[in-house]
Amino acid sequence: xxxxxxxxxxxxxxxxxxxxxxxxxxxxxxxxxxxxxxxxxxxxxxxxxxxxxxxxxxxxxxxxxxxxxxxxxxxxxxxxxxxxxxxxxxxxxxxxxxxxxxxxxxxxxxxxxxxxxxxxxxxxxxxxxxxxxxxxxxxxxxxxxxxxxxxxxxxxxxxxxxxxxxxxxxxxxxxxxxxxxxxxxxxxxxxxxxxxxxxxxxx
Length: 203
What we know:
Blueprint: H1 4-23, H2 26-31, H3 51-54, H4 62-83, H5 85-110, H6 121-134, E1 139-140, E2 149-150, H7 151-168, H8 176-192
C-alpha cells in the first residue's frame, strides 16, 4: 500500500482531472500557470500567486496524467517510506514552485513561453532527483530506452535531455524549464530539509 502523502497526492490529481472533464476550460483559466495573458483572463491578473501551485494539479490529457502518476507511484512511495510524509511533501511542493518560477523566468528573459503551463511534472522531477540522491545505485529501467541503469545516471541523462530540448525548442508544447526548475526544488529539500533521526539510508 502506498504511504499516505503519495496516495493522497495521486487521488487529488485524479479527482481534479475528473473535474476538468466536467468543467472544460474553466479550471485552466483560473488555476493553470499563465506566463502571459491567456484567453478568458481579461478580469484576472496576468499571474496570480496561487497558480504557482495549482497548475500542478491540472493535466493536458489522460496520458499526461498517467505518466506523472505512475512516476509518483514508482518513486514517491519509496522515498516517503524513508523520508516521511512531511519531507516528501516539502520536496514535492518546493519543486512545483521552483519549476513554475523557472518557467516564468525563462519566459521573461527570452520571450513568451506560451501558456497555459499545467502538470505535476516539476514536482515529479524534484521527487525523482531526491530519489536518486537517496538511492543512487538503485537500478531503474526506463520505458525508452529499456536499458537498466543506476538512478543517478538516469536522472543525469534525463536532466541533460531536458536542457537540450528546452534550449533548442525541438519539442514544442512541453515546459522543459519547469522540469529543470523542479530538480532544484528537490535538491534544496534534500540538502536543507530535516531528515528524521534513524530513518535515513542509501542504497
